[in-house]
Amino acid sequence: MTFCLGMIVEEGIVGIADSRLTSGNEIISAKKVTNYQHGRGSLFIMTSGLRSIRDKTLTYFEEAMGDRLEPHDRLFNVVNTFTDQIRRVSREDKEALVESGLKFDFYALVGGRLAGDRDHLLYLVYPQGNWVEIGRGTPYQIIGSAAYGKPVLDRTLKYEDSLRFALKVGCLAFDSTRISAADVDFPIDVTIYERNSCRITEHRYYKQDLAPISDWWQERLRNSVRELPAEWIDRVFMNVLPTADISG
Known about the structure:
Blueprint: E1 3-9, E2 12-18, E3 20-23, E4 26-29, E5 33-38, E6 41-49, H1 51-66, H2 75-99, E7 106-113, E8 121-125, E9 131-133, E10 140-144, H3 150-156, H4 163-180, E11 188-194, E12 200-205, H5 207-227, H6 231-238
Antiparallel strand pairs: 1-2, 1-10, 2-11, 3-4, 5-6, 6-7, 7-8, 8-9, 11-12
């Protein structure tokens, strides 16, 4: 499984991707996010699903982008070029994958800004090659293992939040997923696009880097439960009968 998270806020975009890959009985580490400088803009692509689909799609995508005489000036055009390659790989490999008992499992998050875009953008791409834009209403999307990190984001993240705040809650969402999903783990790759910067920065965190934050968060959660008002619980325990003595 995979944890790839894209968050779009007023100040820019934050991407977080784990790096654990499971292949049969083997566990390896590999990047799931790739950054591109394209013309006077920049973008990133994060992927989840079968690694073979990902590698072939990106190879075709990079070839298609390299063959262009002029760079794209809008990010949605890059996304369309990318989805063309997904459909190409589907035509070539889907039947064989299905025959071997595998799904054509591939999702992607594409974010950034090109010269003709009014602002930074984030897109979710489906295995069929269609896509949707992620915006203000729900300013994030997880591909891969989504269930465990979603509650943290739903309760906290707003489009008006800062990049720093988004990175904090994103790392907490990853930590929640890592604790509960055995096939999601460190190291994680963090990608940041700051509004109007036209460039993407990337940083890798290892387990020891964020261990103090994970411990702090866990203890804070436990203390918050202890401090939760308990009058509503008292009514329940008032009706609990004393434990009967069955020793004799």
